[in-house]
Design brief:
By secondary structure, the protein is α/β, with parallel strands linked by helices. It is about 30% helix and about 15% strand. The strands form 5 sheets. Strands 4-5-8-14-15-16-18-17 form an 8-stranded mixed barrel. It has a 3-stranded antiparallel β-sheet with strand order 1-3-2. Strands 11-10-12 form a 3-stranded antiparallel β-sheet. Helix 1 runs antiparallel to helix 2, helix 2 packs across helix 5 and helix 5 runs parallel beside helix 6.
């Protein structure tokens, strides 16, 4: 309870009722000062958050280390807890967002100094509300530090991970002054665990932001193109095939297409491999958090955008992320199809490494990827993850990620990004405890509701406030 106790001590009442929150955020038992106007409540923020934290701390047991997962706290090894879980899904920066001025437009940080986008502190304040609905698992979209380069929309995507080992500063609340955002996240997990709520997060092992901090240490872990080719970069179209993931023989044939030959010519070796002396000079001069524009000017190269592993997918390139280079060689499907000096490239088989692996795993990268979750387990005590694009990972890497996490906590849950119920058995054999399922697609299509009969292969986990359901594997 170290973090939560210190957080309570850091909050000072201002004696000003100028912090506007939805009335639903104010618990029935709250005895602080409140000014109600319609569906809004104006509170003293220091008093408001302080009293909620006091209420949570009053339900704690001093003998329990709440910074461990609940399974480790209880010395349990079963992962069956997910089968009966009621899960609340949240993108914290929007779930806990509100116009705290009470007037005008929503702002990231307002004129009163309040952060109106969601923060970990505000998510803690929502826990008593969630507990009323018997929520016992909190699933968080990525909280890792994300990129502001090539971002989608005003805020960007949390899936464009700039630094896997750091928490995004956007979740810091200015009310906590000089607190570190990592400690604020630890306090959220701690508060959740006190209330018996497990915490799951998204883990993205296959991609990174196009200006990932890993580039400065390992540019060879990424795919590169000439910056002048960026404007027309896109997945090659294969007119003879439908929208699908190719089979082996189809992928072999794809390499003969002019569109693919042209696509492969866009790629270059990473700047360190091309000129190590210039690379070393560059790394000495640049800021490690804001370097991509300097890299472009210095080398004329940029990391290649990602795209779908489905042929002829109508969606555009994923401009805010790039793929990590999981193999040191090309996929087995490319044998005899590419030139001996072909730089590493992104193509449908490269993306779908689970189906089209190479022969030389990038062991250093694999070890790094598999070390990320243990850091979050030890530092924060998370209870599980949804593995993003796990279906595209090489099986050996997928197993390594699970092994490293479950060596620490046998009760650690993995949810697969599988939308097809027919893949449930495969996911179970791979070590997953649940799949996403396809109810996200069926819910707005009631005429397809009969397809829910497929759920007989799974046991549903109740999920609130998210666009898809999670189905546990029997």
């Amino acid at each position: 309870m170290v973090y939560l106790t210190e957080m309570r001590e850091s909050l000072r009442p201002s004696e000003k009722l100028n912090y506007c929150v939805p009335l639903l955020w104010v618990p029935d038992w709250y005895d602080g000062s409140v000014k109600v106007s319609g569906g809004k409540a104006f509170v003293d923020p220091g008093e408001f958050f302080g009293k909620i934290i006091e209420w949570i701390l009053a339900r704690s047991d001093k003998s329990i280390d709440y910074n461990q997962s609940i399974c480790l706290q209880r010395n349990e090894i079963s992962r069956d807890w997910i089968k009966g879980a009621t899960i609340y899904g949240a993108l914290i920066r929007s779930t806990a967002a509100y116009n705290h001025k009470g007037f005008g437009r929503f702002e990231q940080d307002d004129v009163l100094g309040y952060r109106e986008s969601g923060t970990f502190l505000k998510m803690i304040a929502l826990l008593p509300f969630l507990k009323k609905f018997r929520i016992d698992a909190l699933y968080l979209l990525p909280v890792t530090r994300s990129s502001n380069v090539f971002k989608k929309g005003e805020l960007g995507s949390p899936y464009a991970v700039k630094d896997f080992m750091k928490i995004d500063d956007i979740y810091h609340d200015p009310l906590l002054d000089d607190w570190k955002v990592e400690d604020e996240f630890a306090a959220l997990v701690e508060a959740s665990h006190i209330l018996g709520i497990r915490v799951l997060t998204d883990f993205i092992p296959r991609t990174a932001a196009r200006d990932s901090n890993l580039i400065l240490q390992h540019p060879e872990w990424f795919y590169w193109i000439r910056v002048e080719d960026l404007y027309e970069y896109a997945p090659p179209r294969i007119d003879d095939l439908e929208f699908k993931i190719p089979e082996y023989h189809e992928m072999r044939a794809i390499y003969n297409y002019p569109s693919v030959i042209k696509h492969l010519k866009r790629f270059e070796f990473d700047p360190k491999t091309s000129d190590q002396r210039r690379w070393n000079e560059f790394v000495k001069k640049v800021n490690d958090s804001d370097f991509i524009s300097d890299l472009v000017r210095f080398f004329g190269l940029i990391t290649a955008p990602g795209f779908s592993d489905w042929i002829n997918d109508p969606q555009p390139t994923w401009d805010d992320i790039t793929f990590l280079r999981l193999y040191e060689d090309h996929p087995v499907t490319s044998a005899g199809k590419v030139q001996p000096n072909q730089p590493p490239y992104i193509l449908f088989d490269v993306i779908k490494a689970s189906k089209f692996p190479g022969e030389r795993p990038n062991i250093e990268l694999w070890n790094y990827i598999s070390s990320i979750l243990p850091e979050y387990q030890k530092r924060y005590g998370i209870d599980g993850v949804r593995l993003d694009m796990g279906h595209a990972l090489p099986a050996d890497l997928e197993h390594l990620i699970m092994k490293e996490a479950r060596d620490i906590d046998p009760g650690f849950v993995f949810i697969a990004e599988e939308f097809d119920f027919s893949r449930a058995e495969h996911a179970k054999k791979a070590g997953y405890d649940a799949i996403i399922g396809n109810s996200w697609w069926m819910l707005p299509r009631p005429e397809k509701a009969y397809e829910l009969s497929l759920i007989h292969i799974s046991e549903p986990t109740r999920l609130l406030s998210i666009s898809y359901a999670v189905f546990c594997l029997k």
